[in-house]
Amino acid sequence: MLGLLRFFVLLWSLAGMVPTAHAITIGVVLPGSSLVFYQTLLKGIQRSADDHHVDLLIRSPSDGESLDTSNIQLRIIDYMVTQGVSGVLLAPEPLAGDTRVSIPVPVILVDRYSADYDGLSTVYTDNFGAGRKAALSLLPVLKKGAKVAMLRLAPNVSSTAARESGFLSVARKEGWDVVIDTYVGYRPRDAEVSIAEAINSYPGRLDAVFAPAEPIAYGALRVIETAPIAQRPRLVLFDWRPEFLEGLKRGIVYAAILQDPYRMGYLALASMVEALKGHPPPRTLFVGVATVTPQNMNDPAIRSLLAKYAK
Question: Which domain holds residue 101?
Answer without folding.
Answer: 24-124+261-287
